[in-house]
């Protein structure tokens, strides 16, 4: 557990704190390989890069899974307010746990694929350079 994330969450009270604790629990269980950290002044889960961020606003809890995380699930966000990179969960409604887990796993898999492709391209470039040198 990260003290700075604990501090962030305990700076809120009532439903804000409850929803933040619940969202943190969902994300940490879904992404056990990820590390918690503060980034852009809000909690984030990091594995090779930041996967998702989350935070509290006046009337909602926000999940920030980057634009790809929102785009991939926009058809499942009916009834929620969302933008290119953010999803808002109203304080007075239960968090959609299954959807949150799916989004988190999507982001992890997306980063894993990009990382694998990046390594492949580096090896390919090295091989090309060796052949032409």
Main sheet makeup: 6 strands, antiparallel
The total strand number stands at 6
Number of helices: 4
Q: Strand sequence of the main sheet, in spatial order?
A: 1-2-3-4-6-5
Overall pLDDT level: 89
Per the principal axes of the C-alpha atoms, what is the gross shape?
Answer: globular
Would you identify the regions where 5 or more consecutive residues have pLDDT less than 50? 120-127
**Distance between the amino and carboxyl termini:** 50 Å
Strand percent estimate = 15-25%
Question: Helices and strands: which structural class?
Answer: alpha+beta
Calculate Rg over CA atoms: 17 Å
Please describe what this structure looks like.
- The structure is a single chain.
- By secondary structure, the protein is α+β, with helices and mostly antiparallel strands.
- The chain has four helices and six strands, in the order H-H-E-E-E-E-H-E-E-H.
- A six-stranded antiparallel β-sheet has the order 1-2-3-4-6-5.
- A hairpin with a 3-residue loop joins strand 3 and strand 4.
- The radius of gyration is 17 Å and the shape is globular.
Task: Break the fold down into its secondary structure elements and pairings.
Layout: H1 3-10, H2 14-30, E1 35-39, E2 42-47, E3 49-56, E4 60-64, H3 66-71, E5 81-82, E6 87-90, H4 97-132
Antiparallel strand pairs: 1-2, 2-3, 3-4, 4-6, 5-6
Question: Which labels suit this protein?
Answer:
single chain, 133 residues, alpha+beta, 4 helices, 50% helix, globular
Quickly describe the structure.
This protein has 133 residues and is of the alpha+beta class. It contains four helices and six strands. The longest helix has 36 residues, at 97-132.
């Amino acid at each position: 557990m990260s003290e700075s994330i604990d501090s962030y969450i305990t700076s809120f009270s009532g439903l804000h704190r409850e929803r933040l604790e619940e969202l943190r629990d969902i994300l940490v269980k879904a992404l056990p390989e990820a590390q918690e950290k503060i980034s852009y002044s809000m909690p984030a889960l990091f594995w090779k890069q930041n996967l998702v961020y989350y935070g509290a606003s006046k009337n909602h809890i926000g999940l920030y899974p980057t634009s790809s995380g929102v785009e991939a699930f926009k058809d499942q966000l009916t009834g929620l307010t969302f933008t290119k990179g953010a999803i808002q969960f109203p304080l007075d409604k239960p968090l959609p746990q299954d959807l949150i887990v799916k989004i988190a796993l999507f982001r992890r898999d997306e980063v894993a694929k990009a990382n694998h492709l990046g390594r492949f391209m580096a090896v390919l470039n090295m091989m090309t350079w060796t052949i032409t040198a």
